[in-house]
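The protein record quoted in full:
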Amino acid sequence: MTLVQLEYLLAVDTHRHFATAAEHCFVTQPTLSMQLQKLEEELGVQLFDRSRVPVRPTELGKEVIAQARIVVAESKKIGEIVQNQRKELSGELRIGIIPTLAPYLIPLFVTSFMEKYPEVRLVVQELLTEEIVQKLGHELLDVGLLVTPLEDKSIKELPLFYETFVAYINPGHPLAKNTSIAPEQLDMDELWVLHEGHCFRSQVLNICNRGGGKASASAGHFDYKSGSLETLKRIVETQHGLTLLPELSVLDMPKEKQALVHTFQEPQPQREVSLVVHRSFLKKKLIDALQQEIVAAVPQHIRSRQKEQVVKVRGV
């Protein structure tokens, strides 16, 4: 049994396809298949059910794969020990970030991080929360930037800051005359929301449910489910109704659009933004550097805010 065989084993489990796994391991499919066959012969068990498409691990194979992940992760720590002794940080850091954070948070820290650590290559993907957690588990990402708490025992959450929710209201809407609003004033029939799968959608529905708002999610006769907060902003500006936005998304708005932003009455609903890693995570020094750079880049009033009225990510 070799580490290479275990890495091939994990690749097939991750991609559930021998050709795709071989491509990601930079070997030919016959080479990968031969090494896995040798591993199965040595163990005397079948690790994958090859009769199914996509391939699936056998019940015993699942247990072997779980242990193989531990072994491979521990072996990589040897290289990390050497890396930690070097003064200059280097290597690749793979980051997954949710779409409601990416356009507002990435520009705040990415330039300063790259200037400070020129030997580090950042690879950033916009993904939904569930995809980030899954990729962390399969070691396809090193770290995630998302909204917590998730109550998932497979990951470790490192809170970075707390940002409030604000309402973005069309000037013709009755609530537009209010300086601040309360959740119970929200009418879900007039509220534009993101489509299913976005944690931000769940949080918006939780805010409305807590305030006694109606639990539908359409706006009049035009039911548009968007994956972009920027699209929802434009709809509110040019059509009607309102939407809820995270605080970072309205910080640099032109003055004329700032008039559409309305805060909530105290205690204002918040979302907890965290750096998330797998329990057996590697690249600790790189991730520590990323954490410090993000916190330093966030505006002071957000950075210093205490945890108060955090809205649940899941469940209404």
Observations:
- The two ends are 48 Å apart (CA to CA).
